[in-house]
Amino acid sequence: MQLCSAPILTEKLQLALLGMFTERIKPQTGGPQSQSLSPAGQYGALASGTRLPSSTSASWSLPRWRAYLAAGVLCYINLLNYMNWFIIPGVLLDVQEYFHISDSHAGLLQTVFISCLLVSAPVFGYLGDRYSRKAILSIGILLWSGAGLSSSFISYQIMPCLDATALALLILLVPDIPRGAAEKQGEGAVRTPRSSWCEDVRYLGRNWSFVFSTLGVTAIAFVTGALGFWAPKFLFEARVVHGLQLPCFQEQCNSQDSLIFGALTVATGVIGVMLGAEASRKYKKVNPRAEPLICASSLFATAPCLYLALILASRTLLASYVFLALGELLLSCNWAVVADILLSVVVPRCRGTAEALQITVAHVLGDAGSPYLTGLISSVLQAERPDSYLQHFLSLQHSFLCCAFAIVLGAGCFLLTALHLERDQARARQSGRGTLDNKDIASRNTGEPRAAI
Q: 241 lies in which domain range?
């Protein structure tokens, strides 16, 4: 539960916290630009020039240091979320050796792990739009910490302690923010009940920018899932092929490549997110379709980097590391930009549902299946080749090539997003001002008169 709800709820809480102190220090004014992002960094109704009621703003204004402190706690919670996901890849060689399992069965471990967790994502995304996100997240952390404490597999014992710390920090330092005017604007203006989950899903299914950007994120998740699970083993086997490392048969496997890959992932992730956000901020001043175009360009550049990292691994390990780091850097440029796309094209009332659906689709079709598919292809290739360590390495190398094709498909999806972006942003702004399009009105069919705008 915590793994599914954390990315959804922490992002929404961080945005709300940022809006709290921004509203306090700078009045909101609507801008002439076509983007839904206002000069003060607000989306939706706040970007359209609608002011929060003075009582709400005064009651829930936060000092800058308090908002940043709470946002830091939420970042820590999200960090623990991803630590839980990547424990097994860090010791994959030991797991395979201990249980004597093939690549296909090893990849299935991650598929089952992610698939079981994603069942709750749409539910908690819907609840996050309607109830206390802090309470939902607290319950999720408590349940996940208990599950980790009751297990004894692969040094999970330290994680419950970190989760308990996160729960304490969340309760003490993160305020329980009420529903803001941006999220209630559509409801209050049209004087109709809150939309149901099915109505939200129908709305999102007609939002082509959301649909195509979700498919693009799915391609990114497919590649990052395969890399995160198999890259440490691939780099270890490349080192063995070069004669720099003895094969791992009985003794505990050396985790040097796992640590190097982890360090590269962290460094490129931090730098990539900042580069992507800064490029988006500057480029969309001159091009309203900047965000999906940045995503598409970075993915088109990622494909050859990933291909060269795989092919050169059998010849020069240093070049493989360089191109792998460059590919991860380009992939990481998308994360903040994709979040901006979703916030700008989806009305505030169902952003939690939108984030939950995007996470679910991206993981189910992306990193839930890519480790298993990569391992399955590797096992099939190994069965048709001589039984040698070199052939095992080449089988895994060739199975990785499907990631390069997947990333090109993702780039194409972002190009399609660019075709629909401005229209969907305009519709989101219109709904944020309290109007619904004809399809929404027909689906609601409540018969109640609309309030004057």
A: 2-444
| pLDDT tier, 180 (very low <50, low <70, confident <90, very high otherwise) | low
CA atoms within 13 A on the CB side of 209: 25
Torsion of CA 213, 219, 225, 227, to 10 degrees: -130
Burial of 439 (0-12, 13-18, 19+ CB in 10 A): exposed
Residue 3's CB is within 10 A of a number of other CB atoms, namely: 21
CB of 13 closer than 8 Å to CB of 177? yes
- Residue 167's pLDDT band (boundaries 50, 70, 90)? confident
* Identity of the residue numbered 331: L
Say if CB 384 and CB 142 are below 8 A apart: no
In a domain, 452, yes or no: no
* Domain total of the chain: 1
On whether residue 449 sits in a domain, the answer given is no
The CATH number given to whatever domain includes residue 65 is: 1.20.1250.20
Assess if residue 255 is contained within a domain: yes
Q: Which residues contact 182 (CB under 8 A, 6 or more apart)?
A: 19, 42, 43, 44, 45, 46, 348, 432
d(C-alpha 6, C-alpha 118), whole Å: 12
Q: Alpha carbon of 174 to those of 11, 17, 131: distances in Å?
A: 13, 9, 16
- The two three-digit tokens of residue 37, written as one number: 């992002």
The torsion angles phi and psi of 242, rounded to 5 degrees, stand at: -80, 0
- Which pLDDT value is given to residue 150? 64
Q: 451 in a domain, yes or no?
A: no
d(CA 92, CA 89) in angstroms, rounded, equals: 5
Least reliable range by pLDDT among 191-205, 229-243, 340-354: 191-205
Average pLDDT across the chain, whole number: 76
- Local confidence band at 13 (pLDDT 50, 70, 90 cut-offs): low
pLDDT at 243: 83
Contact 358, 217 (CB under 8 A): yes
Better-predicted residue by pLDDT, 15 or 46: 15
Number of C-beta neighbours around residue 11 at 10 A: 21
CA atoms within 13 A on the CB side of 106: 26
